[in-house]
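Morning F.,

Quick status update on the modeling queue. The single chain you submitted on Monday has been processed. Sequence for confirmation:
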Amino acid sequence: MASMAQLAAGGGILLATFFGAGRRYMRIAAEEAQQVNAEIKHDLEALRMTGQLENRPPSRPMQPRKPVSSFLIIGGSYVGSALVCGVFWFVVLFSIFNAIQNSVDSSQPAGATALGSFMFAAMIAVVLGLFGIVIPGIPILLFFAFRENTKRATEEVTREFYRPYWEARTRQMQTLATSQAHSGSVPPAAIAAGELETFLVTDAESATVF
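Structure tokens below.
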């Protein structure tokens, strides 16, 4: 039977990244593995009761998911938050400077006043925008990092356990639809149950304590 140790080995590169969070990774993976186990047990029960497998689509995507680069998450979060912060401060400062100049010297042409306000606001906004790397940069980074970590853990369970199980399930469902039990032979449903049972994750429940 499959083991969570395989999953930990497969996620080794992830656990060494900036946002790996090994304990959280294993907890999410264990919860996902428990859901896979529940689906397998449901099919085993159906085989015992009816001798057939339910014709239903897979509950998880069959196409592999490509992980998002850690550098892209870090860089994108920092650049995006700095840009948002800079634009925010530019709008605020431009409005303030423009209002002040108009109230102090109303003889200046509107274009000149706006240009001066634009330059002052832009210079200060660039400096203040860099603080967006910290606030809200770090919270944004943590949000996307934890989300990616969750998706990677889920994908690892799907790749390691669920897709092989579903391939075997599809094959056994086709076999059950065309085969007939013969006297003295092992029932096809028992053969299917024996193969599908090998895909149960043996230590998924205990892995939640990691």
